[in-house]
Amino acid sequence: MTETTSPAAPELPGFVHLYSGKVRDLYAPLADDGTQREDELLLVASDRISAFDHVLEPPIRDKGAILTQLSLWWFAQLEDLLPNHVVSTDVPEAVAGRAVLVRRLEMLPVECVARAYLTGGGLKEYEADGTVSGVILPDGLVDGSRLPEPVFTPSTKAPAGEHDQPMPYADVEAAIGADLAARVRDLTVAILARGNEIAQQRGILLADTKVEFGLTPTGELVLADEVLTPDSSRFWPADRWEPGHSQPSFDKQFVRDWLSSGESGWDPRSDAPPPALPPHVVEQTRATYVEAYERLTGHAFRG
Question: Which domains does the chain have, with CATH numbers?
Fold first, then answer.
């Protein structure tokens, strides 16, 4: 991994900045002799928010801390299913609360997605040919329909600026081998099921989720990145679920809807950059993320 620079990434004593994605900054800890350690990374969640493959302005206050703390809570709920990448939350003060020290892994080249309800890109594919990532679904489903059982609908990991594409299961097997493909399929569905088991007790439906897996040098499969957050999942209020149209949500769908509206004046299909988010959208988005955190964990968020 080569070092890059980013004005959004703070300098952290004892760490070297490696990379900045749309919403995360990645650092390598330095050994006593000043060289990069090869076994660990510092994963920092920023307050940046992205939609339609664009990083939006302004950032959402406390978003990085909310996602980090929620992921840590979920990792604890899932630890009996498989190990996760977290080493420590003892991080530099400048990024306290929104960073974790993690194991360095060989990440699998597959976006592992599971769906319990039909919506979003899965709905568009279903309307076109009755399938999602090659999985044949029953006739008559609509936006928001509960699926007969959760399905694994992987996608490619597209380069920056490009869209992920649905990935037939046979392509997953070709990419990582049949045995590992079966493991990540079953674990992705199990994570979604466990998430729904917990979320439904708190009045939330987990429509779908994306998870990331990596391998340790010894071949151990590890849950990585974030898990079951409003950035990686769709959360719906259970008491307002009504198939047949887009559902109200506790995730960044609110931002996507505003960007697609006449109020924004922007066409997501255009090459033009998106407009700045107005204050009411920024505050509503933050409130939505806080509510998701508090309802799921049962803890007050203290930003």
Answer: 15-104 (3.30.200.20), 107-258+292-297 (3.30.470.20)
